[in-house]
Amino acid sequence: MSDVEIGFAGIGILVTLIILRVPIGVSLIGVSFFGIWALVGERAAWGTLGIIPYSFAATWQLSSVPMFLLMGFFCFHAGLTKGLFDAARVWLSALPGGLAVATVFGAAGFAAVTGSSVACSAAMGRIAVPEMMRRRYDVSLATGTVAAAGTIGALIPPSILMILYGIIAEVPISQLFLGGVGAGLLTAFGYVMVITLRASLNPELAPRLTEKVPLADKLAALADTWPVILLIGGVFGGLFAGLFTPTEAGAVGAFLSLVIAAVKRSLTWENFKNALLETLLTSASLFIIAIGASLLTRFLAFSGAGDYLSDLVVAIGADELLLLIGISLVYLVLGMFLEPIGAMLLTLPILLPIVDTTGFSLVWFGVLLTKFLEIGMITPPIGLNVFVIKGVVGDLASTSLIFKGILWFLLSDLIVIILLMAFPEIVLYLPSLVE
Amino acid sequence: MTAIGRLLARAIDLSTLLGLVAVALMMVHITLDVAGKFLLNEPVPATIAMVSSYYMVVVAFLALALAETRNGHITVEVLTEFFPMRIQKHIYSWTYLISALIYGTLTYRAWEEALRAHNTGTFIMEQGTKLITWPSYYLLPIGTGLMTIVVLYRFLIYLTGAKSGLGEVPTLEKAAGPDIPPEPASAEGQQR
Question: What is the pTM of this model?
C-alpha cells in the first residue's frame, strides 16, 4: 500500500468505527496511532501518542473553552435570559409575530453570553414558548422559532465551535468572534423577516397583542437587561480592545455572571455545582475528541492524503465556487447526522489542507463553517436543538411538528449562506477594523 | 463485582471533586490575575503555567471516567439506532472493549512519559517564577487509567451479567444535559 492509500484506508476504518458507535475520541486516537505506526513506524507512533495528548490539553488557549462554557452555564442557571426576553417583548409586541420576534432578539442577546446553541435554545424555549402559547401562537411557529433562534448562540461570540476551529486552524480567536457578529446578526435579521412575513400573511399564526404597554414599563423592562449589557461590555470590550486574551475574557465573564447571579439572588448552591459539573463534563468530552483530531492531523500529514486531495481538486479544475458548493453539501449532509463539534473536528484535518490551497480567508471560512454546522442543529433527522426544545415543551409538539416550523427558517438560512459567500465583507468587516 | 464497582464509583467521585475544584480555581485564579494586572499592576505569578499545566490537565483527563458513567462521550448513532435493542446492547458493550484497549495503550504511554518528566524534573519558567510541572504529567495516566478500568468493568459486567455497583447510566440510555429533560430518542430507549 502506498502512503496515500494507507491514509484513505485510515479514514475508511475511522468512519466504520464511528458509525458502529465507537466513541469518536477513541476512534480518532486508535486510527491515528496505528496509522502512524503503519506509515512511519513504531517509534513515531509511540512518540506522537506520548506527546500530543498532554501538549494539546495543557495550553492556555484551550482553557478559554471551559471558561466560556462556565460563563454560559452560570448565565443559564441564573436566568439572565428572562430580562432580555421581557425587554424585547414589550418593545416589539406591536410587530406582526412580535413575541416570536422578541424570541429571536432574546436569543441574540443570550448568544452574547453563551457559546453553545443547545443552551441558547433551552434557555429561550423555557421562557418564550409558554408566553407564546398563552397568546395562542401557532405551536409549530413558536417551537420552530426557539429551535432556530438558538443557532445564533454559536455564531455571536463567544462560540465554542469557533474557539476549537481557531486552535486547530491557527486563526486568532478574537478575529473569528468578530467575524461571527456579522453572520449572527444577519441570521437574526433573516429570522425576524421570516416571522413578520409569515405573521403578516397569516395573522392566525400569531395573533396581534392588543394591550398597550406604558412607556414607564417599557423603560423599566430595559433596566432589567443591565446584567447582560454589563457582561457583554466588560467581557467583549476587554477582548476586542486587546486587553484580555480569550481565556481571560471567559474567566472574567464567568466570575461576573456569578457576581450578577449573587446580586440577583438567582443562583442556588445546587445550580452553582451543576454549572461546574456541566462545564467539566462538556470540556472533557470535547477535549478527548480534539486530541484525537490533532493526532489525525499528524497521521494524514504523514500519509499525504490531504495533499493528494487538494491536488485532485486542482487537477479536476474545480474553481473556488465549485469547491465551496462541494464543501457546503458535505456539511449539510454531515450536519443532518452528526453532533456539530464532532463533525467539525473530524473533518478539519482533511479539509484544512484543501482550503489552504485556495485563497479563502480562514476567518471567513471558520465563520461559514460554524454557520453550516449550526444549520445541522436544526435539520432532520438529528437536530439537537429540536430535541432540546422537544424536551422542554413535552407533549405540546411532536418532533416532526417542530421540524415543520423550522422549514421556513432554513429558507432564510440558505439565503444567509449565499450572502455570506457572495459578500465575505459581511464577515470580514469587523475583524478588519481591529487587525 | 459489585464491590469493585462501588470502589470505582468512589474513585470517580474523588476525581470529579478534583475536576470541580480545578474549574472553579481556574476561574478565580485567572480573574485575580486580571484584576491584579489592571488594578494593582501586580499579576498573580505563574498564572498561565498553572492554568495550562495543572487545571487544564485535570479538566481534560480526570473527568473522562465520569463522562463515561453518564454515557457522556460523543458517539454517532446514525446507523445503530435502526438495530433492534438487543443487538444495540451487544454492539455498545463491545465498544467498551475497544475503548479499553485504546485508553489502556494511552495510559501505558502517558505513564512512561510521566516517569520521564519526573526524572528530568520538568518545570516552566514564567516571568522569573519557576513552576514545577512534572507532577501534572501523572494526572494524565491517572485520568485515562481510571477511564480504562471503568470501560473494562462495564465490559465485564456485560459479559458476566453481574450487578454493577458503578451507579452508571445504563448502556442504552443517554445522559441528560443541565436541567434539560432527555431527548425523545432516549425515551424510546427505555421502553424495552
Answer: 0.90
